[in-house]
Each structure stands twice: as structure tokens, then as C-alpha cells.
Specification:
Its cofactor is pyridoxal 5'-phosphate. This is Aminotransferase class I/classII large domain-containing protein. This protein is an alpha/beta fold. It is built from 15 helices and 14 strands. Helix 10 links the parallel strand 5 and strand 6. Helix 3 packs antiparallel against helix 12, helix 13 runs parallel beside helix 15 and helix 14 packs across helix 15. Bound molecules: pyridoxal-5'-phosphate (PLP). Pyridoxal-5'-phosphate binds next to helix 5.
């Protein structure tokens, strides 16, 4: 009997990765599966960025970099955050990591841990999180508040930090936007971190500034609460939606850990580069974790990232061309699925996913397959019958829906949509 840490036993493996792997295995076995499960742009990294990476190799820029990232890149990130997001940071308030995933995990690990309420009740009254940690050495408030549908890793990161994920439901009829009243009702002394992803994965929800201001008011009244703002899809947004950085709201700079990265907007998933920006106290704590776990991110990728930020406001024309293609696909999907009976749709305002409510089909049967009872059986059915790989909503905390990634060419999406519609109409 080889025993494992309880930390691992309670952890769920990423379903999006599992389904993508399953679909890839089917393709390798000769089954013509259309893969719409992955969260990865189908475009190549823009040539100028790739060339900067190649130049770094040719120049022998292949050694360790500082743990926090090169000063050149951190300065470029500060410039970007100021110009595009209206938030002021200095390079020592930036930590560059191997992907936004690492940035998020380190942030959760740095501020959450198990704890006993009795340990802090009464002692910490009205101090800010910074004072709490620096004065009392207390780093363990217990809950990570996560609106659903959520990106699969938020809940598991909370579990890795021995904290409790607390899920706040939202509804498709309200475009999956968080109701501030529900937030307020769930917050307590134990609430440590509120995770906001905008634009969101899996629903493409973009939080309007007004709603973020309402949330900020609630956060301001809960002094121990920090906000982890995941802005990785910020550039993949469809007018008239506008991205607002939580840290730019009045009073929220001190309370926000902003995460962003290069994977999505710049089609740089394999380069593994993301970053955290926030008050130095927290960023240094995350840096400490990183220094013992992975050290500075890839030197070559950092040179490429400097070139990416050099493309201009919001990634310039190279990014605009990708966003235009994503928008065409979104429009096609929304229109086509809108014609299918019994489907509920909230038009995504950003990212490259459609989160469709197919729950009116639950309880139906497919010949030779059996009962469709939930999002998982529906996705298995679609893989089997339509040969399209999509992700069940239960992976994102909402079993009524499935997630279709439209990071694929329009013709691939058209073929997949035809197949899915045919498979759905065969259900009785
Ligand atoms: N945040 C969200 C919402 C994501 O969808 C992803 C990637 O799928 C990430 C963060 C992590 O991105 P990366 O680690 O590639 O920078």
C-alpha cells in the first residue's frame, strides 16, 4: 500500500485536459473526432514574437533570469498595466511565472491555509489583510469564494492550499453575472479570497464596470477579503463589451491581486508565461514560493513576451485579427444554436467559449446509447455519436451546460455544429 497525501486524494484532475487527451487518442486511433474541448487559440504565435524568441536563442540569452522575471519584461508589464488598465505598479510589484496558472496557484497558496477561527476571532477586528499578516503573522482565513461557472482550476487550487472553495451560483438568464446580494450573503469572517475571472472561462462573461463597482463596495466592507482578478482573456473581447481591471477601481488597488499572461491573446500557450501584479507584500510572498519551486520563468519566452507587449495597445493588429476571427465564429455559433429547439444561450462577450444550456434534453434517450441524464453523459454521447469533443459543464460547476471552445477554424466549427445538431435532434 503506497499512501498518498490527502491533499492529492481530494484533488480532481483537470477534466478539460482529460477530455482533450481522450479525443486526441481517438484521433490517433483513426476516429475523425473534432476537438472543441481545449482552451487554446488555434493560431500560431505572431511572427514578430516568435522571431524575438529565436533571436534570444541565437544571442545565447539562455541562462537563468532573476526569480521575479527580467527587469526589462517587468518594466514593460508595468507600462502595459498603466496604459491599458489604468493601474500603477512598480517592477518590484510584478512577479513573472510559468503561465498564469502558476501565478494564480502561488497567490492562493500565499494567502490561504487551514486555520481555526478561534485563532483570529477577536484579535484582528478592523485591520486590513496587510496589517493582519504583518502584525499578527496570520495568513489563514479559510474560504476562497468562487462564482460558478468557474475555471476548473480555481476550486482545486483552493483545495491545494487547504482552503475551502465556496461556490456562488449564477444564472444563464442573467448572463452568468454574479448577483452582489448573493456575494454579500455568503461572506463571513472566514472569507479570504474572491476570485473574479473577466472575461470568463467557460461562459465568456464580461463583468460590466458598474457591477464591479458594486462588488468593490462589498469588498471594501470586508477587510480581510482580497480579490484575485484573473484577466487572462482581457484582449479577447467583443465590442461593445469593455474590460475593467478590478485593481483600477477606487480603493481596490491594495485589495487586489491581478493575474494576466500571454497564452490566450498572443497565442503563446506553449511559451508558458504569465504574471501577478499586486502590493509588494503579497507579490514577495508569491516570489518566495516560486524561488523554491521553479525559479525565474524561461529566458527565451520573456524576450518573446517583451516583443508581444511591443505590438502596441491591446496587442495591435496581430491580436485584433485573431479577435475578429473569434467574433465571426462566436456569431456563427450563437446564431446556429439559437435555431435549435430547447437550447438556452447567453451570448459570450469575450474569451473563445460558448457555454450552452442543453438541460432540456436531460431525461431523453439515444438509440444504442441510453439515457442522457447530465452534462457528462451528454458529452459522452456527443463524442460517440457526433464525434465532437466538448466539455461537460459539471467540470465548471454548472451541470446544465456544456462548453464548446471555438478556437478552431470556421469550417471545422460548421462541421461540428452540423454534427451536434443532428445528434441532438436524434434524441427522444
Ligand atoms: N485562467 C483561465 C481562466 C484560463 O482559462 C487559463 C488557461 O486555460 C489560465 C488562467 C492559465 O493560462 P496559462 O497558464 O496558460 O497562462
Amino acid at each position: 500500500d503506497i499512501s498518498l497525501s490527502p491533499r492529492v486524494s481530494s484533488l480532481k484532475p483537470s477534466k478539460t485536459i482529460a477530455i482533450t487527451d481522450q479525443a486526441t487518442a481517438l484521433v490517433q486511433a483513426g476516429v475523425p473526432v473534432i476537438r472543441l474541448a481545449a482552451g487554446e487559440p488555434d493560431f500560431d504565435t505572431p511572427a514578430v514574437i516568435a522571431e524575438a524568441g529565436m533571436k534570444a536563442i541565437r544571442d545565447g540569452y539562455t541562462k537563468y533570469t532573476p526569480n521575479a522575471g527580467t527587469l526589462e519584461l517587468r518594466s514593460a508589464i508595468c507600462h502595459k498595466l498603466k496604459e491599458e488598465n489604468g493601474i500603477s505598479y512598480t517592477p518590484d510589484q510584478i512577479l513573472v511565472s510559468n503561465g498564469a496558472k502558476q501565478s494564480l496557484l502561488q497567490a492562493v497558496l500565499a494567502v490561504c491555509s487551514p486555520g481555526d477561527e478561534a485563532d483570529y476571532a477577536g484579535t484582528i477586528g478592523h485591520h486590513s489583510p496587510v496589517q493582519l499578516i504583518s502584525t499578527y503573522g496570520i495568513t489563514y482565513i479559510l474560504q476562497v469564494i468562487i462564482p460558478a461557472p468557474f475555471w476548473v482550476s480555481y476550486t482545486e487550487m483552493a483545495r491545494l492550499a487547504d482552503a475551502t472553495p465556496v461556490i456562488l451560483p449564477t444564472h444563464i438568464s442573467e448572463d452568468f453575472l454574479l448577483d452582489p446580494k448573493i456575494l454579500e450573503s455568503k461572506l463571513s469572517e472566514k472569507s479570504r479570497l474572491l476570485v473574479i475571472g473577466t472575461p470568463s472561462n467557460p461562459a465568456g462573461t464580461v463583468y460590466p464596470r458598474k457591477l464591479l463597482e458594486q462588488i468593490a463596495q462589498i469588498v471594501a466592507a470586508h477587510l480581510r477579503l482580497l480579490v484575485l482578478s484573473d484577466e487572462i482573456y482581457e484582449h479577447i473581447i467583443y465590442a461593445p463589451a469593455i474590460h475593467t481591471s478590478f485593481a483600477s477601481l477606487p480603493g481596490m488597488w491594495e485589495r487586489t491581486l491581478t493575474v494576466n499572461g500571454f497564452s490566450k491573446a498572443f497565442a503563446m500557450t506553449g511559451w508558458r508565461l504569465g504574471y501577478l501584479a499586486g502590493p509588494k507584500h503579497f507579490v514577495s510572498a508569491c516570489g518566495k514560493i516560486q524561488s523554491q519551486a521553479t525559479s525565474g520563468a524561461c529566458s527565451i519566452s520573456q524576450k518573446a513576451a517583451v516583443a508581444a507587449l511591443g505590438l502596441g495597445y491591446a496587442g495591435g493588429e496581430a491580436v485584433a485579427a485573431m479577435v475578429k476571427a473569434f467574433k465571426e465564429r462566436r456569431d456563427y455559433l450563437v446564431q446556429t444554436f439559437g435555431e435549435l429547439e430547447g437550447v438556452k444561450i447567453s451570448e459570450p462577450q469575450g474569451a473563445f467559449y460558448l457555454f450552452l444550456d442543453f438541460s432540456s434534453y436531460y431525461g431523453t434517450e439515444a438509440e444504442g446509447f441510453g439515457l442522457i441524464k447530465d452534462s457528462s453523459s451528454l458529452c459522452r454521447y456527443l463524442l460517440d455519436k457526433a464525434q465532437v469533443a466538448v466539455v461537460p459543464g459539471d467540470a465548471f460547476g454548472d451541470d446544465t451546460c456544456i462548453r464548446i471552445s471555438y478556437a478552431a477554424s470556421l469550417s471545422t466549427i460548421q462541421a461540428a455544429t452540423d454534427s451536434i445538431k443532428k445528434a441532438m435532434t436524434a434524441l427522444k
